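Dear support,

We are seeing what looks like truncated structure output for some complexes. This example has two components. We would appreciate it if you could run it in full and send us the complete token output so we can diff it against ours.
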Amino acid sequence: MQISSIFRAGNRTHALLSDIENNKTILSDLPPTLGEEFGALLRGSETKLGIPLELEAGGKVEGYGVFEFQYGPVSSGVPEAGGFKLVTYGERVLKVVPQINFKKRGVEQAALGKLPQDALLLIERSAGNFSASYSTCFVTAVEGALGLEVPSKARWTRAAAIELERIYNHLYVFGRLAEAASQNVAATQTHALRERILRSNSKYFGHRYLFGINTLGGVRYDLAKEERTQLVSEIRTVAGEFSKLVEYFLSSRIFLDRLQGTAKLSRGDAIVLGSVGPAARGSGLQWDDRLTYPIEPYRDIYVNLETESGEDTMARTMVRVKEIESSTIALRELLDRMPGDGPGPRTSPKRSSQDRLPEDFAFCRIESPSGDLIQVVQVDNRGRISNLHIRPPSLVNWLPFAKSLQGNVFTDFQFAYESFGLSFADSDR
Amino acid sequence: MTAVGVVAGLLFGTLVTFGAGFFLGLISKRAAYLLGVVGSALSTILSLTILISGGTTSIDLWKVTSSSFAQLQISPFNSYFLLISSLVWLGTCLYSVKYDDDYPKSLSSLLLLTILSMVFVLVSGDAITFLIGWESMTIASFFMILQGKGDREGVRNAAYLFLAFGEGSSVFIMLAFSGLFSAAGTFNFMGPDVARIISPLGSWIFVTALVGFGLKMGLAPFHMSEWLPIAHSSAPSNASALLSATLTLMGVYGIIDVVSQLGQYELWWGWLALTIGGVSALLGALFSSVSEHSKGLPAYSTIENNGMIVVAIGSYMVASYYNLTLLADFALVAALFHAFAHSIAKASLFLTNGWVSKLRGSFDLGSSNPLPPDERPSLGFTSIFTALSLAAVPPLAGFVSEWMILETLFQSFRFGDLTSQIVGTLVGAVVALAAGIIVVTMTKAYGFGILWPRKLATASGKHGTNGGLSIMGSLVYFAALIIATGVAAPGVFLLASNAVSRTLGTNPFGMFVTGLLGVPSPFVILSGSPFGGFSPTFTAVAFVLVLLGVLLVAGGVRIRPLGLGPKVRRTEGWFAGSAQSSDGTGLYNSFGYSTPIRIMLRFLFRTKETVVQVGGVQRPIIRSPEEYVVDLEVLDVFKKFYDVLARWALWLSAYTSKKVMPGKLGLYLIYIMAAFVFVLIYILLAVG
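Here is the complete output from our reference environment:
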């Protein structure tokens, strides 16, 4: 059993649990045994702006020569504003304490009191790389809360955008790993492939990072049959070229040496520390929201659950490599078999039914490129957001990342960091 | 004739001054040290006179055996070593005047007794006087180490270790001398003026001498992580400087002396010396780089430097075997030059670190106590030259000598057979590696010893004890000496050449020191004909000119009255984008600085990393132990060997004391009788 999220709705504190063994999502009251630091982590949305939050788990480390090395928030190698406290006696990483919230913008607080369509602009920009996942998650939850009917075609288009997002993010992670190993040809090739997908995004969805595709109750873009065929062929070409690149990668001993056995995260730790996404699947956890908490249309299409048992950076990388392939297949199915009804309303829904709004909340889980994204939304009877809780995937992956790096050396840092697909913008929101 | 009188007068003056200092030390420490300064000055004058004028003076004291005299002898060869030692003693005695404040009076007496014994070692013309000096030097040093501060048990162990290895060294030296005696027929074989000995016992003599003197120099495999670093670092700092800079120098003197007695070399002697030297240099450098003790670090570095000297001696022997006169001459001068450069810089490093440790209140380089801010500029200025010289940065003394040794090894392709060439090349690679590692070591010693951590130091504002004329005078003296030895390297080369001109049968100065490419005549040192060349003097001049140029051009010099000069803006250092903590957390420490070496070379260091879990608490969600204690430990292969040896020895002595000794009184008397009879028969047979 894994604690996925903790949130307040009404007067009660709820916990969302994932039953890994039985592929079930369970909603319950807050378990009394919950560790305090874990609670602080998941309730990260309640922290104030401008105060960094240290995610410390595990015991104190002492010994001759042991010191804390400050890495970040503004150091080379850390790509965003976020820090790490490395406990070490030189070279060997004895403990990592990620420091987040340097970039906190207070998205959740800012959204309160806004109309959902206004809040959507904020939500989809809070983590640019995961924009499609964020906006889809948000609108799905709001639509659930408002009881809106959404045309199937709109839902299928959203899923296609999410798969596109997954492919370009996985390519990005792979490129970053190649950069970390100084495999410059592989890195630039991969980034070029990613750029082609971003251009396809721009061509068919109007924005490189898929901003603005979703509206409440529908999507903005109605792709014609020939456009969809063209998009599929573009993405399949990219995926084909990438699989060739991966063949080269698998024959480069230098690259493999850096990944194999680096930053191991055991399956038990992955469960206990709440790891999600490709990182968890690299440790053998069989959890993918597309299969374990499927929203439409994932019930109707085939998605392969990609897992690896290696528990190391290599395993996490291979999960992503295989997911690029399976996402391409899923994307083809999504675009080929897209139902024929319209893309949904282009204007915001009328607020005719506001007096009949349910008091209850709605939540949505979406498998973003870095894993399980949860949003809980409550809309008040004036049709405004009264409660919003975002549980980003990066937030829960910090502790597994910190745990996996224990006992590794400094130069493994970059590989561990990139392979988890972590993003400070995502976790800080 | 007056010249001889002057020499004898100076020599006796030196001996009497040191001797008087020894007795005066029982009354007044300061007076004793000041006498030490005077004595050192006298012996400096004496040795310089002999080195420049040449010629040997021997003073026979009395007959020891039918063929030998107890003899004092002063030749250019031993006066070269006397010069190095005197220069070190002078600075050390000056330093001790102030440093010695909180040590008992006996330390000054013992220090001067050690110095006196060393003078005897150097000026003895016969093996008996040499051994008397050698023994009294060892024993005086033993009592000196006993005065060390800190953990009593540790200091006592260190002193006994020193004594054990010192006596072991004496035994082997006696064995070597017995071989020399049997070949020469007299004990008066010290010094280069004696005819060379060609003896079937040659290998015996060489190997026992190498082991005996090598023990004193702390060479591998006779030391490691054991006696020399422990003993030298446990002693009071002025004693440490004396031990590491001059006591090991006696070993160098002994080896070169014995080697120059032997008329014909075997090829494998050279290989042995090269290998032992190379291994010592590398291991010394490596262990030095991971040492956290502010005096253990220079002690290991002593092993590295002694290893380099033995490498040069080995090259000399191989080159002589193949009659490569030019290369052999250069190698021997290189060995002597390196002994000079190393002794001065090492004494300076020990004295600096001793004072720094006293101010910081800890011998731990990783200690969080900073140096008082008012002490930092002066100590930082004098010790930078020491650190740079030991790290072999041109144009300082250490660079010149290391360059000479490496140039010798570069020319190992001239050796006459493939094995020698391979050994020479491999040892060259190893020595170069050691020289590289020492740069890391010296960065660490200077960075964490003196500089670290600047901000905390200014914050604490603690005022230290002022070193005054004694400490600062001594350190400035050494800094000046280090610069002079580098900049005036041709001069030192001349002295070294004069010292070995008898041994080599020619004076190598003219062959190697010349002018080249517009640099005037006695300022370029060549390493072969033609091989490499280097002018320390002109490098120094160029360096100073460039420095001045940079200062002027970049506007580093402020000319206030003219309103010229750079804008100065002071700001806090960049600390990863956040504020630096005031208590020193988050700063890299000296242990962490060298941990990569410990981890990367774990096969050599036998590094053990252990994580001990203390008080594991099961938390409901995150199962994690409450606390870890981590430990990174460096072991040494040689230590294991000596541990086993020590266990056997302890077992044997326990067995003897329990089973043999407490026997019946009658039995014990029979032992004595048997021994007496045995000795009688032996004497009868021997005389007969």
